[in-house]
Amino acid sequence: MKMNWGKSIVIAIVLFVGFIMYFVVTMMTDNQYNHDLVTENYYEKELTYQDKIDASKNALDLGENITVEKTADGLFVRFPKAFQKEKIEGKMFLYRPSDKKLDFEIPFSITNNYLLVPDNNLSGGRWNISIEVKHKNKKYFFSKEILY
Questions:
Q1: pLDDT digits over 136-146, tens only?
Q2: Closest Cα partner for 131 from 121, 140, 122, 118?
Q3: Model's pTM, two decimal places?
């Protein structure tokens, strides 16, 4: 059988399509390559995004920000001194980009000017922290990325 340019091009295209299809099937079926959206309710959260922008501006107007530090006991979150500790309430969301199963949310209403997240709740790696605070009917939003 004699090979010519036409047959060679067809064989090359078929091999290339087979190569691409192999990777598509591998990515679709292997759990190692399972990447989910950041949130299941993406569009619902997008509708409330302006509220988050306004809360972030409120936080910038404070002058003093929430500080997040890694300590031996866990993650130590200190609130600004301008906040009256009896009137602080909100929630803290810890998002782990590499594993959806490690994400968790902590609602809080505190009596001190700080919050401690125990060390046993956090594994090593990158965490995105979002803190929504309501103080005297005004909302504040803080976010930070840390390596734990």
A1: 888 999 999 98
A2: 140
A3: 0.68
Bridge partners, 130 (sequence order): 93, 143
The tokens for 80 are 């600004």
Phi-psi region of 137 (alpha: psi -120 to 50; beta: other; left: phi over 0): left
Q: What is the 3-state secondary structure (H, E, C) of the chain?
A: CCCCHHHHHHHHHHHHHHHHHHHHHHHHHCHHHCCCCCCCCHHHHHHCHHHHHHHHHHHHHHCCCCEEEECCCEEEEECCCCCCHHHEEEEEEEECCCCHHHCEEEEEECCCCEEEEEHHHCCCCEEEEEEEEEECCEEEEEEEEEEC
- What is the C-alpha to C-alpha distance for residues 52 and 139, in angstroms, rounded to an integer? 9
The residue assigned the tokens 């602080």 is 88
Question: Which tens digit of pLDDT belongs to each residue from 26-85?
Answer: 888 887 766 666 667 778 878 888 888 999 898 888 878 888 888 888 888 888 887 877
